[in-house]
Each structure stands twice: as C-alpha cells, then as structure tokens.
Amino acid sequence: MTRSFDTSPNVLFETRVAAVERLSPGFVRLTLHGPQLAHFAAHGPDQRIKLLVPQGEYPTAFDPRTEPVPEREWRATWRDLPDAGRPVLRSYTPSAVRWPQREIDVDVFVHARPGPASRWAAAARIGERLLVSGPDVRRGRADHGVQWHPGAAGTVLLVADEAALPALRAILASLGSETAGTALLEVGDPADAADLAGPPGVAITLCPAAACCPRSRSGHAPTAPPPRHSARPSTPGRDRELPGRPGPGTTR
Ligand SMILES: Cc1cc2nc3c(=O)[nH]c(=O)nc-3n(C[C@H](O)[C@H](O)[C@H](O)COP(=O)(O)OP(=O)(O)OC[C@H]3O[C@@H](n4cnc5c(N)ncnc54)[C@H](O)[C@@H]3O)c2cc1C
Description:
- By secondary structure, the chain is an alpha+beta fold.
- The chain is built from four helices and twelve strands.
- Pfam families: FAD_binding_9, SIP.
C-alpha cells in the first residue's frame, strides 16, 4: 500500500483559512493561504486534492514543518495515529489557485446530513489551520489527480451532482467555444448552480435530486426547475446518492 505513495507528487501543504464566504445556499468557499502554496500544482480543471479535516486540534505528529511533507511520509504518520483525533480525509477540487497570493479556494458543499468536512467548513473561522494534500509542481507527474482527459473530443457528456459542481464549472470553462454536448447536474437547489455557464453548444440541464427533469438550455445561466422542485435549503433527498464512477468524457 505504501508503495503507491512512494512516487506520489502529492505533499501536505500547511494552510490557514484566510476567508470564508457563503457562496449560495449549499456552498461555502474557503480561501486557504500559506507560503507553501507557492508550489501547489493545479494540473487540470478537476484537480483532486484532499483536506485533512482536524477533529479538534491536530495531533502533534502534524505540527507545522517548514517544507511540505511528501505523501509517503504523512500517510505513514496518519496511519499510525489512533482513531480518536486522527484527521479525516476528504476529497475536493480547488476552484481557484492564486500563486502570487499563495492562496487556493475550495468550494465545499455542506451536506444536509453533514459529515466532518461539511461541519468543519460550515463553522470555519479565519486563521484556523487546515492541512491540504495536493500536487507539488516540483515533483512532476502533471496528470496526477486529474480525471478529465477529453483529448480531441468535440462533443462531451458531463454528469455531476453538487459535490462535483466545482469540477464541472471548471471543465465547462475550459471547453473551446465550438464544443458541443450536454452537462447534466443533479442539484437540490438551483441557486447553487446560478453561475454555471459553458459554450453555447453545450446544453446545461438541471435535475432535481429525485429524478432528472427535462428543462434544458444552451450555454446560459441555469433557470429554476418547476415549482415543485423550487429552491429550498438542504433536504435529505439531495444527499441521496454518492457520485458515480467517472467514465470517458464524464466527470464527477
Ligand atoms: C475527486 C473528488 C472531488 C471532489 N470535490 C468536491 C468539491 O470540490 N466540493 C465538494 O463539496 N465536494 C467535493 N467532493 C465530494 C466530497 O469529497 C464529499 O462530499 C465528502 O465526502 C463530504 O465529506 P463530509 O465529511 O462532509 O461528509 P461524509 O461524512 O463523507 O458524508 C456525510 C453525508 O454526506 C453525504 N455525501 C457525502 N458525499 C456525497 C456526495 N458526493 N454526494 C451526495 N451526498 C454525499 C453522505 O451520504 C452523508 O449523508 C469531491 C469528491 C471527489 C471524489
């Protein structure tokens, strides 16, 4: 198991919360800052990172280091910790990277039945410490943690739920203006997807959590689904499914 981390380009970045913004009913944006983020690599629009969500204080084994800790090393430390107090690992997608400011943004969907990451993000305060595992540009492997490889495809099918909305938004923004296709988003509250936009040839369809609705449009900001699915805060329904496995031309 350790072997697969020997060549991992991921390291543990030391960050602090620099800003917290409620973006929409379901999303909280965490702006994370730290000098080590100068080496953070975003290799693709769906770049996978992990947050090590603290359970209270971080154990002393995770005391701050001057240099980012390689994944092989921090994983071993993490595994050796007792369950109580061990940071919880959750996957996310940075929604913005600002190297000059040594900052990244992470848009966290706060689930109706919140787990440790949703809970932490919803209560996050400026100055709080958060450890982030992500690729270090100095370690190469420029495809690591990226699943969106469209190649020369001119037609795409994108399927996402709210948890994949940051990746979907970035992928749509990366598409050429001639790209055609469909983006299907399962969303409990359309306000969470209010700014979703893509090339004119890509129809963006919002689906209520229970079943896909037929409303569709091309390239414009989403409109609300029919009233029976109208905007509401979190409902158990929106947490019904975990995202499916990604297939070719599909993201999550
Ligand atoms: C590669 C990748 C990138 C991701 N990027 C983002 C991102 O940028 N922003 C973001 O908000 N999330 C993202 N996610 C999803 C995120 O990892 C999960 O939502 C995470 O499990 C939430 O952690 P938690 O501790 O809040 O909840 P958990 O303890 O994991 O679960 C608590 C509750 O949330 C529900 N739940 C958990 N995950 C999902 C899901 N994906 N869909 C529906 N219900 C769910 C569970 O059913 C449970 O009710 C990403 C996942 C992957 C694999």
